[in-house]
Design goal:
CATH topology of the largest domain: Rossmann fold
CATH architecture of the largest domain: 3-Layer(aba) Sandwich
Strand order of the largest sheet: 13-12-9-14-17-18-20-21
Distance between the termini: 23 Å
Bound molecules: ligand PMT
Largest sheet: 8 strands, mixed
Shape: elongated
Strand content: 15-25%
CATH superfamily of the largest domain: CoaB-like
Number of helices: 14
Length: 415
């Protein structure tokens, strides 16, 4: 993050609820944009009584989202996408009413629905009358929201628009900006892989039978993409080489899309040198020998016979390459004797670590959101509990970072 544009590229979803402090949110939009952020706004019905949609639209330079039931908004940007397309959701002003609805998990307007559907961090800037703020109901709601990880800036003490004095004034726009920068800095966390290059393979490969048919497998890319994103979050410069998947490119990675195993190998070679390679792709072991250049026809002579030939082994090639990454991590997809087969695979392919997972019927390891892995190194083995693929990725990325940190301290930096 550069200091002049500390929020460059950050996408903020600003929820403006109905309070007199809503006028400060217009200034907040301006301050955020000055710092490089893009701002998209949801204006509640009550919020629109304090600031006009036109002012918000003019300042954000974007549509103002107001109605849960608007066909136009829902077709162009549904409430789920709206809440997920942001890096941070900011509620300013957060009124007593909206805080209560957030705490109760209600979804009775677009703002509450987006806040319930979001998987992004939420920062709120409460603003209300001092008695409302101090009321046990509001304090209970606050405690529940903070226990769930919602961050808060303010409220400040001061003279209130209603003539009373005390806590309840919304934080000033620049204080909210500082809190927003604080959330991003805190989330960026330590970056132990800064200066390292990582190569990750993900997804299936598809092997042509003819121009329209192919052989493939059920890999969704969820595990490999999560690993690429986790390594990038720890500061690595990541090249992700992926077969066809229905996932967005992970943020902060260079993504190279390929189809066949041969193309995946070529892209991996082009991405070297790297400090670490993680091969999570489900690469087809075989391809069709002499794939047809034209669509095969039913010509009455019976089904065609497909002769297969072996694909290159990318993991084994990287493990034995002249410019071998210092750490090569393979995956092993097994349906029985998982650890035993994986141990043999690690030695046969020449990688340093192998992450074994059971892909037997009913496990949903291919395509599902969870994984149960057994990590095998030369000198140690660990069984990890069943976790989301994101959590597996996070833990693996941290183990990789720890490996480099330990090597640095014992052998000097290898960067
Ligand atoms: O994509 P998801 O739906 O999230 O599912 C994740 C996954 C199950 C695909 C993933 O966790 C996984 O196990 N990936 C490896 C799948 C696989 O092909 O395993 P394997 O045991 O056949 O191969 C062993 C290793 O060799 C793997 O690292 C594989 O990438 C690599 N390989 C295999 C064949 C080949 N020709 N080249 C390779 O590099």
């Amino acid at each position: 993050m550069s200091n002049s544009v500390p929020l460059a590229g950050k996408r903020i979803l600003l929820v403006i609820a109905g309070g007199i402090a809503a006028y400060k949110s217009l200034d907040l939009i301006r301050r955020l944009k000055e710092r490089g952020a893009s701002v998209r706004a949801i204006l509640t019905e009550a919020g629109a009584r304090f600031v006009t949609p036109l002012s918000v639209q003019a300042l954000t330079g974007d549509t103002v989202y107001q109605d849960l039931w608007s066909l136009t908004d829902e077709s162009s940007m549904g409430h789920i996408q709206l809440s997920r397309d942001a890096d941070l959701v900011v509620v300013a002003p957060a009124t007593a009413d909206l805080m209560a609805r957030m705490a109760a998990g209600m979804a009775n307007d677009l703002a509450a629905t987006a806040l319930l559907a979001t998987d992004k961090p939420v920062l709120m800037a409460p603003a209300m009358n001092v008695r409302m703020w101090l009321h046990p109901a509001t304090q209970d709601n606050l405690a529940r929201l903070e226990a769930r990880g919602v961050r808060r800036v303010g409220p400040n003490d001061g003279d209130m628009a209603c003539g009373e004095y005390g806590p309840g004034r919304m934080a000033e726009p620049l204080e909210i900006v500082d809190a927003i920068i604080g959330v991003f800095t805190e989330r960026a966390g330590p970056r132990p892989l800064a200066g390292r290059r990582a190569l990750v393979t993900s997804g299936p490969t598809v092997e042509a039978i003819d121009p329209v048919r192919y052989i493939a497998n059920r890999s969704s890319g969820k595990q490999g993409h999560a690993i690429a994103a986790a390594l990038a979050r720890l500061g690595a410069a990541v090249t992700l080489v992926t077969g066809p998947v229905r996932l967005p490119d992970p943020p902060g990675c260079t993504t190279v899309a390929i189809e066949s195993a041969q193309q995946m190998l070529d892209a991996c070679r082009a991405a070297l040198p790297a400090d670490v390679a993680v091969c999570a792709a489900a690469v087809a072991d075989w391809r069709v020998k002499g794939a047809a250049g034209h669509k095969l026809k039913k010509d009455g002579g019976g089904p065609p016979v497909l002769e297969l030939e072996e694909n290159p082994d990318i993991l084994a090639t990287l493990s034995r390459a002249e410019s071998r990454p210092a750490l090569v991590v393979g995956f092993a997809a097994e349906t029985r004797d998982v650890a035993a087969y994986a141990r043999a695979k690690r030695l046969r392919k020449g990688c340093d670590w192998i992450v074994a997972n059971d892909v037997g019927l009913g496990t949903q390891t291919f395509g599902g959101d969870a994984n149960t892995v057994h990590v095998i190194r030369a000198d140690a083995e660990e069984s990890w509990p069943t976790m989301s693929k994101d959590a597996v990725a996070e833990r693996l990325a941290r183990a990789i970072a720890d490996h480099f940190t330990q090597n640095e301290s014992t052998q000097g930096d290898t960067r």
